[in-house]
Design goal:
Elements (H helix, E strand, L loop, with lengths): L3 E5 L3 H12 L3 E6 L10 E4 L1 H10 L2 H7 L1 E2 L3 E4 L5 E4 L2 H8 L4 E4 H10 L6 E3 L1 E7 L6 E7 L8 E5 L1 E4 L6 H6 L7 E11 L9 E5 L3 E7 L5 E8 L9 H8 L7 H6 L7 E7 L8 E2 L2 E3 L2 H4 L8 H17 L4 H29 L7 H11 L4 H10 L18
Parallel strand pairs: 1-2, 1-12, 2-8, 5-14, 12-19
Antiparallel strand pairs: 3-7, 4-7, 5-6, 9-10, 10-11, 13-16, 13-17, 14-15, 15-16, 18-19
Helix pairs in contact: 1-5, 1-10, 2-3, 2-10, 4-13, 10-11
């Protein structure tokens, strides 16, 4: 049949997979359940490993141009004192790439633009994936709500499941797995109107609460408020609730909330795959991104790990080995690293945002006494990653169109 792939899900990981597979010479169809991609979302930070992966996909330069480097800031207490300073320039010197902040919608658009017209199909819901025939996968689809796209049955040599933390594909492939678990924290976030900020990036830790922001290149900022609490709680007036929760905390927290339109606030409970998957591959189906290793946001590595997945998968397939061998190599390379980062993110949350009571004072004292380079070394631990090389555009005979 040829190298034909269907990517399920058009989030950051799915789009990156589509780009990478095309670079590897595959014909790619990306299907997305949402009828319209409305570019909803707030902002996102990308560490050096994510930027390097995007470079390998050929979109790193455009992302850098649309992003703002994160050089100044760090971690503070609610009263405003510094627990740790961030030296973004030192990180860039060590890694060869900066940490950047970019609106999620902008990143999504840049990834979409790197795919050829006609390869992304919206309003298509995948209802089943059958890989019982060796060497072939059959994908059953139907139009999603409010879509005029007819149902279809697609034959492929490979399916990439990038359908998120609540992945239906993962649930079907691993029916004994418990699926995503609530982390104990919920997050509210938004993009502000333009305002002046003194730092590029800040996180403030209180008791069971975190407030952070990243500055964006157009003068806006993304802020997030992460709170301990039960799942499912929502507020009629989210901004009012946050003003009450963070009353007395240092500026610019109040100014960030004041610069936010009420309708811009997003609220999501944080779920993760606390039980690691036994494999990222089942037959000719590869799991990628949150579908494979959904993690808490405490290290800012979720999107970076998804893009890493996409590059490693494409590189394994481009090496010329048969598809099954390539998928085994992808699982062997990606599963240990991604699951290790997910574990580290969970631990970071427990000693950071989720911590409460007398232990907070002990943690703060330890951070103040820590060597100045400790924060840099902690970030290097996860961001110091070199992607495998992908074929340059045009060096592989592509089957697209």
């Amino acid at each position: 049949m040829g190298n034909i792939a269907v990517v399920v899900g058009a989030g950051i990981g799915g789009l990156a997979a589509g780009i990478g597979l095309r670079r590897a010479g595959w014909k790619v169809r990306v299907v997305e359940r949402a009828p319209v991609l409305d570019d909803a979302g707030a902002g996102i930070s990308l560490a050096a490993n994510g930027i390097r992966a995007l470079d390998e996909l050929g979109v790193g330069a455009s992302v850098r141009k649309a992003a703002r480097g994160q050089y100044t800031g760090g971690t503070r207490t609610p009263g405003g004192s510094w627990l740790a300073r961030m030296d973004g320039a030192a990180l860039e010197r060590a890694l060869g790439a900066p940490i950047v902040g970019i609106p999620r919608a902008t990143l999504h658009r840049l990834l979409r633009d790197a795919l050829p017209p006609g390869s992304l199909h919206t309003g298509v819901e995948v209802t089943g994936v059958d890989h019982s025939d060796p060497g072939r996968v059959r994908v059953r689809t139907r139009p999603s709500a409010s879509s005029a796209v007819p149902g279809d049955e697609l034959d492929a040599d490979l399916v990439v499941a990038a359908d998120g933390v609540n992945s239906r594909t993962r649930a079907a492939l691993f029916p004994g797995h418990p699926g995503p678990a609530y982390s104990g924290s919920t997050v509210l976030r938004a993009l502000t109107e333009p305002l002046d900020l003194d730092t590029d990036f800040e996180i403030t830790w209180g008791h069971g609460a975190e407030f952070g922001h990243i500055a964006l290149p157009d003068g806006r900022a993304e802020w997030h408020a992460v709170l301990n609490g039960p799942a499912g709680v929502r507020h009629a007036d989210p901004l009012g609730a946050l003003r009450g929760r963070f009353a007395g905390w240092h500026q610019p927290i109040g100014r960030l909330l004041d610069a936010t339109r009420p309708e811009a606030v997003l609220h999501h409970d944080i779920h993760e795959l606390a039980t690691p998957l036994p494999s990222f591959v089942s037959g000719r189906v590869a799991l990628l991104g949150d579908a494979a290793h959904a993690m808490t946001p405490n290290l800012g590595q979720g999107a970076c790990q998804a893009v890493e997945d996409a590059v490693v998968l494409a590189a394994a397939l481009a090496r010329g080995a048969d598809t099954d061998t390539a998928l085994a190599a992808y699982d062997a390379e990606r599963r240990p690293r991604a699951q290790s980062v997910a574990t580290a993110a969970r631990k970071a949350g427990r000693i950071g945002q989720q911590l409460s009571g007398p232990a907070v004072a002990l943690r703060n004292a330890a951070l103040r006494l820590a060597p100045s380079g400790l924060a840099v070394r902690m970030i290097l631990r996860h961001a110091d990653w070199t992607p495998p090389r992908l074929p340059s555009p045009g060096s592989v005979t592509s089957l697209v169109e």
